[in-house]
Structure formats: structure tokens, C-alpha cells
Amino acid sequence: MTARKEIVLQLASIPNVSVSEGMLLSERTRFGIGGPADLYVEAASEPAFSAALRIARSSGAGYSVIGAGTNLIISDAGFDGIVLRFTADKISNDGAIVCAAAGAELQALVDYSIERGLRGLETMTGIPGSVGAAVYGNAGAYGHSIDERVERVRFLDGNTVRSFTASECQFRYRESNFKEHKEWIILSVELRMTPAPAAELRQTADDILKVRLAKYPADMKCAGSIFKNLILAELPESVRLQIPERVIRDGKAPSAYFLEQVGAKGMHRGGVRVADYHANLIYNAGGGSARDLCALISELKVRVHSRFGLELEEEVQYVGFSRAAD
Ligand SMILES: Cc1cc2nc3c(=O)[nH]c(=O)nc-3n(C[C@H](O)[C@H](O)[C@H](O)COP(=O)(O)OP(=O)(O)OC[C@H]3O[C@@H](n4cnc5c(N)ncnc54)[C@H](O)[C@@H]3O)c2cc1C
Question: Are 204 and 113 in contact, with CB atoms under 8 Å apart?
């Protein structure tokens, strides 16, 4: 038996694990882009994920952990190794403390909290993806991000289960300690919410969802914003002076502003386009490839750099590229 076959058999023998060979990752990303994974593994419980990860780590093949694929650019060549996804999705609460498994949908957690009259996540309605990735990338919208509510995060450090307080997670704008330690896999999160009338929270969420759906239609193959916004205080004065007051929000200068100045709206490479109504929104209009997507992203970065001297930084994460930290 080949070593690879042995690995497949070991993985498939773990209860609550499913293994697919050659799974097209374009079916696992919202961009609809990405070649095959040598092995694609889903694990629906902590012991199952832990066992699958142990096998992946000792197999000598590369591995990468993904969530719901809403913030990923996966190479056209796919991933020559094992792609793992943790799908446990239990959500529970004890009063204002809500606990969610990392594989739960963020929207399910938002709805769960709203229904129980717990304030804290309602402005995150409509952000697609899993709870684990939301913690990993400190997801947020409308002036709030998930770190404001995090009490503790349980994670697998590769070998053992550990737990961090919010301050140990070192949350910053769309950043956390987990982004610097890709081998740390989030298992669950505990959040502290505030009691509030459910109807009021639902109204806030519904109003936000209407605006979001107009910007990101449900069938749009995209990753939300491609680039992070820029922290105003970190920009050189010469750049700050060029930014109109009206575009500044929560101390940040939107990347979209700089992109718009360099003519990004409507640009395209193959089937990949920049929205003509939003310069920081790139989507696959049909038949787009990772090659097109990366070429367009680099062209935009070059244009912004040569006009403003700024390095835009991707919010989106790469899988299957040699330059990526996967
Ligand atoms: C239409 C649209 C709108 C969006 N709007 C917003 C927005 O308003 N605000 C915002 O913040 N984001 C937004 N996003 C981006 C995206 O929703 C978030 O980044 C989301 O948290 C990604 O979740 P995911 O499960 O799809 O993760 P994936 O895209 O699958 O993975 C993203 C990263 O998370 C890591 N990861 C996944 N699970 C774990 C885990 N358990 N432990 C450790 N690391 C893990 C992966 O390794 C990868 O690096 C938007 C995306 C889309 C498509």
C-alpha cells in the first residue's frame, strides 16, 4: 500500500471525519476559484479534528485549514496536500455568556444572540463565514468587531488544547495572534453579551442586512473587501492631507478611496472584475481564475503605490501559493 493510501485510510477510520480525494476547491470558495486539494477532510467534532490534524501534521504532506471559503484566494493549481475544515457548530449560552464552536456560521451565532435578547453581534449580520475565521481575522462591520465581545478562545496549538483571554489574542483591526500562528486552530469561542430588547436588535440587523445585500448580492462571487482599510494615524501627513474628511470612518481611510483615485472601478482581467460601484470589491463575473485575480490585485497595488506611496494590504487570505503563509 502506498503511503498516501495509508493516510487516506487512517483519516477515513476516524469517527465524524469525511475524506475526499481531488476535491475541487472552487466548490469550497465564494469566489468559485481554486484547483483540487489532494485530500479534503471535514471533521465534525473536536476529537475528530484533533486526530485528523495529528495525521496531517505527521504525514509530511503540507496542510491548510479553511473555514467556509468566503475570504480565500486558492491557486488554480489547488493545494498539494491536505485541506482540513472543522465543522462542529454547536452554540449555547449561560445567561449573557454565549459559547460557539468554530465551525458554526457567524450568522447563526448572530441570530442566536438576537433571538435571546443579547446585544453585541447584531451589527455583524450578513458577514458570511464561520465563527472560527471571524475570530482569526477579527471580523467586523459598522464600527464594531468580534473582539469587543470575546472572553476566551479555545484552540489547538498543534498538540494540545489551550485557551486565551481576549488580551492574549492580541486583537487589532482585522488581525489577531492566530494570523501570526497559522498552526493554532480555533475550536470555540466564549463571548460576553449585554441583555437588550430582541426586537430592537433585530431591527438593527435587518436595516444593516438591507444595505449589505445591495452592496454584495447573495450570488456575487467575491470575498467582500479585498484590501484592508488604512489606519489614518499611521499614514504620512502628505497622504493624510489628500484624504477628504467625508470618507474617513472610525479613524480609518478606506482603501476604496485610493483605489478609486487610480481608476480601479470597472477594471478587469479575464473574468475577474472590480465592481463599478465599489473600488475595493473584486468579483468573479464568470470564468475567472486565481491567475486573473492575482494579476488584478497586483496591478491595483502597483497603481496605488506609485500614486500615493502606500502599500495596500490584502484582507483576503491565500492558499496554495508559494508566497502565501499557508
Ligand atoms: C460578501 C462578503 C462580505 C464580507 N463582509 C465582511 C465584513 O463586513 N467584515 C469582515 O470582517 N469580513 C467580511 N467578509 C470576509 C469574510 O466574511 C470573513 O473574513 C470571514 O470571517 C471568513 O470566514 P470563512 O469561514 O469563510 O473563512 P475562510 O475564508 O475559509 O478562511 C479565512 C481564514 O481563516 C482561517 N481559519 C478558518 N477557520 C479557522 C479556525 N478554526 N482556526 C484558525 N483559523 C481559521 C483560514 O486558515 C483562513 O486563513 C466578507 C466576505 C464576503 C464574501
Answer: no
